[in-house]
């Protein structure tokens, strides 16, 4: 089984510096791309590989690049690595950033060449202190070795790379909000169109790609589109970093073929539920994805298969809901996060999310009414796709709408019993 | 008044961006690093140097949760309160912190040793519950490990 992204990353060893990275074939894709490919050929190869954005949206990466206008060679363009990993339950990019920074830098050089961008940024979340230190050092190494800067490998292609660390807020991961943050503004999302590919950072054509997406690029250039496609088990291409957190025996992160089933992740890799805990459901790809339940254990974790059962692959890092955790409290925690992280720009999100959170809290505290469930359902429509400025509120509604469907009895119990059925289990340490 | 050291750092950041005020978040970070937080007076000084109004800069400063517009303690505890840490029991850790430090989220100890803040997912969910103190990440927390960790910060 091939693990192109993580094969050289080991938990007990320090990060791969330039020497380590080149010793295992690193930067070959830069040599190859700059010498033997036109920018258009790189884009075509990536498009043919069917690599889809690993940040959660799942858009074809090569197609995204193909929207960048290429007719004016003097045009300023930007490439940005979105390393603002902040989707609750998601911890996959951290491994790539801390373990093998040159793989990301190499992916960025090849990607920047494909769109002919001469300036690039890594937008890193503030909390990733170790990653910041490592990336800074790796960028310096890459400059010293001539992989960054002017006239890279004598090709005539120039690329500057900067590390930018954020100062918090989930919304910075939304690509147009990220651009505003990078411009020193409040990170509210922008109207689309124009899309960033045409008018992005400082009004110039800009590509924003997730870290895991960019790390795949060198391997696609080295091994070809057909090789990449064949890595997947189902309809989608490549490998995927999958994670499992919650009350399982061995929570963790693994690179596996795209299309590995929920059951294999849970039972083989995460070692099954801890003794005394039963599986009740899982958010397959971060906080903003619909619940999967027992009947979905054999679903393949790829974009199409997860979508077919009403959820999203998202970031591919699962959060498990167990039988000792109250589903209403679980969903309240999620909606508290989303209400707090709403940028406040559009009314449905700014007003609707705190309302949702308050209703859930009153239910959890045994003060709910049956009408509240209808009210919550109304919110899932009013804050759903098409009603808000960006995808934050629709994402927030995904675990709520599926939670209401799969855990309806638990919601009703709170109302009938006028308390949370899990209250006593928490030994009176129920702190809201 | 901005110090010479702060101005030197600010000028470095300004040189990297095409529009002067685009460096304003960096400017806030630089001043906060020196002074611990961004007072009204600091905010006005930064705004003047960045050639923007204090109001515009404050709209940026108050958007981001890690720019502090109120005084904070010598050490900042950021306790993850997101979903994986919720499942794995961050509330017990929060209770223990309250018992030990006698402060709630958003408060600072009387001796200014610690400020306690909630924080969104720290991205180490396979080692929940987790928190950061200043620049350091601590994972797989228990009440006992937490006691030892707190001793490291004076």
List the helices and strands and how they pair.
The complex is a heterodimer of chains A (432) and B (154).
Chain A: H1 18-23, H2 28-36, H3 39-49, H4 61-66, E1 78-83, H5 93-99, H6 101-115, E2 119-124, H7 129-144, E3 160-165, H8 175-182, E4 206-210, H9 211-223, H10 225-231, E5 239-245, E6 252-257, H11 262-269, E7 279-283, H12 303-308, E8 317-322, H13 327-341, H14 347-364, H15 370-382, H16 392-406, H17 408-417
Parallel strand pairs in A: 1-2, 1-4, 2-3, 5-8
Antiparallel strand pairs in A: 5-6, 7-8
Chain B: H1 4-15, H2 24-35, H3 40-50, H4 54-61, E1 75-80, H5 83-87, H6 90-101, E2 107-108, E3 114-119, E4 131-133, E5 136-138, H7 143-151
Parallel strand pairs in B: 1-3
Antiparallel strand pairs in B: 1-4, 2-3, 4-5
Helix pairs in contact in B: 1-2, 2-3, 3-4
Give the biggest beta sheet of chain B.
5 strands, mixed
Order of helices and strands of chain A: HHHHEHHEHEHEHHEEHEHEHHHHH
Let me know the CATH homologous superfamily of the largest domain in chain A.
NADH-ubiquinone oxidoreductase 51kDa subunit
**What kind of assembly state do the chains in view correspond to?**
heterodimer
Strand content of chain A: 5-15%
| pLDDT < 50 stretches of chain B | none
CATH architecture of the largest domain in chain B: 3-Layer(aba) Sandwich
Family (chain B): Belongs to the complex I 24 kDa subunit family.
Cofactor (chain B): [2Fe-2S] cluster
Organism (chain B): Olivibacter domesticus (Pseudosphingobacterium domesticum)
Keywords (chain B): 2Fe-2S, Iron, Iron-sulfur, Metal-binding
Explain this structure to me?
The complex is a heterodimer of chains A (432) and B (154). Chain A is 42% helix and 11% strand. Mean pLDDT of chain A is 96; it is low at 428-432. In chain A, helix 3 (39-49) crosses helix 6, helix 6 (101-115) crosses helix 9 (211-223) and helix 13 runs antiparallel to helix 16 (392-406). Chain A has helices at 18-23, 28-36, 39-49, 61-66, 93-99, 101-115, 129-144, 175-182, 211-223, 225-231, 262-269, 303-308, 327-341, 347-364, 370-382, 392-406, 408-417; strands at 78-83, 119-124, 160-165, 206-210, 239-245, 252-257, 279-283, 317-322. In chain A, the strands form two sheets. A four-stranded parallel beta sheet of chain A has the order 3-2-1-4, with helices on both faces. Chain A has a four-stranded mixed beta sheet with strand order 6-5-8-7, with helices on one face. Chain B has 154 residues and is an alpha+beta fold. Chain B has two domains: 4-61, Arc Repressor Mutant, subunit A (Orthogonal Bundle); 75-151, Glutaredoxin (3-Layer(aba) Sandwich), CATH 3.40.30.10. Helices cover 45% and strands 13% of the residues of chain B. Chain B has helices at residues 4-15, 24-35, 40-50, 54-61, 83-87, 90-101, 143-151, and strands spanning 75-80, 107-108, 114-119, 131-133, 136-138. A five-stranded mixed beta sheet of chain B has the order 2-3-1-4-5, with helices on one face. In chain B, helix 2 runs antiparallel to helix 3. Chain B starts with a helix and ends with a helix. At the A-B interface, strand 5, strand 8 and helix 13 of A face helix 2, helix 5 and helix 6 of B. Chain B: Its cofactor is [2Fe-2S] cluster. Chain B: One of its GO terms (molecular function) is NADH dehydrogenase activity.
